Amino acid sequence: MSTASPKQQEPKVQVIRMYAAREEIYPREIKGRFTNLRWLCVWLTQIVFYGLPWLAWNGRQAVLFDLAARKFYLFGLVLWPQDFIYLAALLIICAYGLFLFTAVAGRLWCGYACPQTVYTEIFMWVERKIEGNRSARMRLDKQPWSVEKVARKSAKHFAWGLIALWTGFTFVGYFTPVRTLLGEAASLGLGPWEWFWVLFYGFATYGNAGWMREQVCKYMCPYARFQSSMFDKDTMIVTYDTERGEPRGPRAKSATGSGLGSCIDCSMCVQVCPTGIDIRNGLQYDCIGCGACIDACDIVMDKVGQPRGLIRYATENALTNKWSARQAFRRVLRPRVLIYTSILLAIVLAFMFSLATRTPLKVDVLRDRGAMGREVEDGMIENVYRLQIMNTDERGHAFRIKVKGIDGITLATPDVVDVQGTATRGVPVRVRVPHGAGKAGSNKIAFEVEAVDEERLEVKEKAVFIVPR
After folding, report:
1. 7: which strand partners?
2. Residues 250, 206: contact at Cβ < 8 Å?
3. Do residues 458 and 451 touch, judged by C-beta distance below 8 A?
4. Contact 291, 238 (CB under 8 A)
5. Is the sign of the CA dihedral 113, 117, 120, 126 positive or negative?
6. What is the pLDDT of residue 8?
7. How far apart are CA 468 and CA 441, in angstroms?
8. CA–CA distance from 272 to each of 25, 154, 296 (Å)?
9. Which of 70-79, 225-234, 248-257, 340-349 shows the highest mean pLDDT?
10. Residues 391, 418 contacting (CB under 8 angstroms)
């Protein structure tokens, strides 16, 4: 017979939290080759992003996605809704490029060029300039509110807000001519949608880079979740050499024969990590591959008189088999990488060839269904059509219209029309054939539209000519 009390017999309740509360991360500033490379990417991406809308080309904005006019301007290239295939091809190229780079060298995009990484770096730089280094920021957050704390926090958020608003303004400047947009903004005359997108994109930048930071990479970005499907044992990733580093522990620089590994357990690799992970625990989906821990560890190794490379870019096979960098590099050209490269190269070549041979002239033929075919003077049979001539070239052209397919077929309307650059013109066309020409019912014909001043601009479109029974 059990003698346990009722309280002892009650089952214990275990609470499992599905979402851990965020702990504030204070990344330490570090210098090194990978930090310099990351800042180089920050400068390059922001010069391109902020500078492109202000670049002029042929008297217009060089890069402009004019949704109202349904035209995309990319330097000398003008794309219309009918050219959507090029946008789809560009997205496919970006996807396969991401697959290829990930298979070869892990999350290079995340660590160096992702907008989340770039703007987080910018915002953290502002934070360090206003609030101080890591220790100063931690002390400031623990202090009670004071005039100095309010002033520093306000200055930081004000600077973040200015950067975010300018980023939102620049983003909208890709869809509305940026010089026009600047004049409207100066007079507070922006339209409702322009206001919405400037504020929305600015708020997203402020929230993601200023507040959420690593939370975006951990929980919102899908790339972190499926990256493992693109990794293998020959993928170059940020790794900790466990065999060399363990057992870890502090020691004097002159200490020898202590039985400890190279890692002195200084936690510098954790302090500089923007996502707050410990790379010594192995590969984690939180790691964005930025290399900050490598720079920090190399500095520490220099100070304690140990060789660099305790934390480094390496592959799992390279660590297991103790390969040199040259031996690991030889494994780059493996089947997965070759397949990705072949597909990507084929798509890029097809994309470039299609753009190079693209004819900046499109024609749509619409037959007037209200008049199936009628007899006019001299017994001629007439059909009426409407030709939509789209000149995607930035220069205006005169186009000659021809029609073929039936003996004696002619145009009863002018055969030369002018179409301005990047414009569409609807042209009514009356086509006639002699009595007795063609068979009763539908007859196949073809319209030919060619530029008078440029032979390469020529398009043929099929149509149907109706002869009454």
Report:
1. none
2. no
3. yes
4. yes
5. negative
6. 55
7. 6
8. 10, 25, 7
9. 340-349
10. no
Give the CB-side neighbour count of residue 468, counting CA atoms within 13 A: 14
Q: Which helix (H) or strand (E) is 237 found in, with range?
A: strand 237-240
The rounded distance, in Å, linking the Cα atoms of 125 and 127 is 5
**Token pair recorded at residue 229:** 């499907």
Rg (CA), the chain: 33
Asked if residue 414 has a cis previous peptide bond (ω within 30° of 0), the answer is: no
- Only one residue has tokens 């100070």, namely 303
* 431: number of Cβ within 10 Å: 24
List pLDDT tens digits, range 270-328.
999 999 999 999 888 888 999 999 999 999 999 988 999 999 999 888 888 888 888 88
Q: Judge whether 53 and 61 are in contact, CB under 8 Å.
A: yes
Share of the chain above pLDDT 90, in %: 48
For 211-232, how does the pLDDT look when each residue is reduced to its tens digit (9 = 90+)?
999 889 888 888 777 777 788 8
| pLDDT value of residue 437 | 85
> Would you say the C-alpha torsion 308, 311, 313, 319 has a positive or negative sign?
positive
How many other CB atoms are found less than 10 A from the CB of residue 229?
A: 9
Structure tokens at 44: 């390059």
* 3-state SS string for 117-132: HHHHHHHHHHHHHHHC
pLDDT tens digits, residue range 126-179?
999 999 999 999 999 999 999 999 999 999 999 999 999 999 999 999 999 999
**Angstrom distance (rounded) from CA 387 to CA 447:** 9
- Please report the DSSP string for 165-221 in residue order: HHHHHHHHTTTTTHHHHHHHHHTT---HHHHHHHHHHHHHHHIIIIIITHHIIIII-
CA 209 – CA 117 distance, rounded (Å):
8
Question: How many CB atoms lie under 10 A from the CB of residue 448?
Answer: 14
Give the span between the Cα atoms of 375 and 383, in whole angstroms.
9
* Identity of residue 262: S
DSSP 110: I
DSSP line for 278-329: -GGG---TT-----HHHHHHHHHHHHHT--S-SEEEE-HHHHHHT--HHHHH
Go through the domains of the chain in sequence order and give each one's CATH number.
Answer: 33-228 (no CATH), 232-329 (no CATH), 361-467 (2.60.40.10)
Cis peptide upstream of residue 468 (ω within 30 degrees of 0): no
Q: Residue 267 — φ and ψ, nearest 5°? A: 65, 15
- Residue 348: pLDDT over 90: yes
**DSSP states of 21-37:** PPPP--PPP--SHHHHH
The kind and range of the H/E element at 444 are strand 441-451
Q: Measured over all CA atoms, what is the biggest interatomic distance in the chain, rounded to whole angstroms?
A: 119
